[in-house]
Specification:
The protein is an alpha/beta fold and about 450 residues long. It is built from ten helices and 18 strands. Helix 5 crosses helix 10. The structure holds zinc ion (ZN).
């Protein structure tokens, strides 16, 4: 009996050690996180006080309805545009590469949602990158607002969450990146016309196409500060959505055949951008899960990224996970003791800070990164349980320090492994049929380009 007891104790101890090791391995599997100190410092500069000041400052104009006054200094959409322009010019003072412009466009007309033709204004800040870098990264936020009746241009329509949350995030990013050396050109677009059919965004997407911008990524921020759901009463400020199109709107027949051949229905460039935002956003933002939503936007509702997708650009929408339908597009009033309308009390500034951090870190990591590799392909000409992947050095920009081969199982939403490669090819003992592969360029400081999906080459 004694022996048995001693043996049991021994076995029990071994089991406990084994169990402990198993728990350590699963709970704390070794993920190495390398942060770029420049990005970390910038993220630490985000101030909720500044964002609160800008949300309250813009609320004072009562409404930013697209048909509201353009000329009054204290009321309407014109006053809001002037406020945004003034703030941006203040930040631009410290940086000669920072310019601010008003982009006016004609909108509406008889029979349209606006009912008559008017001139609307987008306010666009441009922070020029290095001279040899022609890449452009755009952040969008619409600044117009509406109440319950979208024809009513005088009723109080604070739009604190929809969308002063996005506006104040972009203003804070403008303030922080002014004077900083970042590789690519950054455009911060404060758009009008959203509530009447994404008009300001459509105008900017047209300009980007006509002027042949090398626009590599568009991040639309629309409603990023509400953390309390209506109906279901959930309070959660630790999860945010990134919407991305599945099959690109602009896909042609040849591209469709290629997609089917590669089973690449989850690998559109916009989906790669969404994954990229998840990785870089979570790297620099604690207490936040970035949830990929496999949709361009919500049912029957669109956003300013969509006109960019329709022109073939890589564009996603960042949006709160839980919406509050008592606040969005509601008349501001108290009914049965309950507050309705999009008031500042519905803005969760800590949540807004985290979502601003997601934007800033993704934007900076991408702007610092080398250009993407080209001709990324998987050799599918022979049957082998090895996979050969090759690519070419980017045609433009600084030579990357190296590349990451990205690997994921076919049913995984995100890339699971990264292998650093110095050259431009790799042969690995994994079957090409069981995984998806991608390649991204990496800078000396570890900043990654957007991943390029590896396509089968016969
Ligand atoms: Zn909106």
């Amino acid at each position: 009996m004694k022996n048995t007891y001693a043996n049991w104790k021994f076995i029990n101890g071994t089991l406990l050690v084994a169990l402990a090791l198993f728990l350590v391995n699963t709970a704390f599997s070794q993920t190495i996180i390398n942060k770029d100190p420049r990005i970390e410092a910038a993220v630490n500069e985000i101030s909720t006080d500044n964002m609160r000041e800008n949300v309250s400052g813009l609320l004072k104009f009562h409404t930013r309805h697209n048909l509201s006054s353009q000329n009054r200094v204290d009321f309407g959409i014109g006053a809001a545009a002037t406020y945004i322009e003034r703030k941006l010019k203040e930040y631009a003072k410290s940086d000669s590469r920072f310019t601010v412009e008003r982009v006016n466009y004609k909108a509406g007309g008889a029979g349209t949602r606006l009912g008559r033709e008017i001139t609307l204004t987008n306010v666009v800040a441009t922070i020029k990158g290095n001279q040899s870098d022609d890449r452009v990264i755009a952040l969008l936020a619409h600044y117009d607002s509406r109440s319950e009746d979208n024809a009513d241009s005088t009723t109080f329509a604070p739009g604190a969450n929809d969308n002063l949350s996005g506006v104040s995030a972009l203003l804070e990013i403008a303030r922080i990146i002014a004077g900083k050396e970042i590789g690519a050109t950054i455009k911060l677009m404060f758009l009008s016309g959203e509530e009447h059919g994404l008009l300001g965004a459509a105008h900017m997407a047209q300009i980007a196409q006509d002027e042949k911008w090398n626009l590599i990524a568009v991040l639309n921020n629309d409603m990023i500060s509400n953390s309390h759901s209506s109906d279901t009463d959930i309070r959660n400020n630790s999860i945010v959505r990134v919407f991305s199109e599945n099959i690109p709107f602009t896909e042609n027949e040849a591209q469709a055949r290629e997609r089917v051949f590669n089973s690449a229905e989850n690998d559109s460039p916009s989906r790669q951008l969404a994954r990229y935002i998840k990785e870089s956003g979570e790297r620099y933002t604690e207490n936040l899960t970035i949830k990929l939503i496999y949709r361009n936007d919500r049912y029957g509702r669109g956003g300013d990224h969509t006109p960019f997708n329709r022109k073939g650009f890589t564009a996603v929408r960042i949006c709160e996970f839980y919406e509050n339908y008592d606040r969005t597009h509601q008349k501001t009033e108290i009914r049965d003791g309950k507050q309705y309308g999009d008031v500042i009390e519905g803005v969760d500034f800590e949540y807004l800070r985290k979502n601003t951090s997601v934007n800033l870190s993704s934007l900076m990591n991408l702007a610092f990164a080398p250009y993407e590799p080209s001709n990324v392909s998987t050799n599918v000409s022979s049957l082998s349980n090895y996979t050969e992947i090759s690519w070419k050095v980017p045609a433009k920009g600084a030579k990357p320090n190296g590349y990451y081969l990205l690997i994921r199982e076919t049913d995984s939403p995100v890339w699971q492994r990264k292998i650093f490669v110095k050259g431009t090819e790799i042969k690995i003992p994994l079957s090409k049929d069981n995984y998806f592969f991608g390649v991204q360029s990496v800078s000396d400081n570890g900043n990654e380009s957007l991943p390029v999906f590896s396509k089968g080459l016969r």
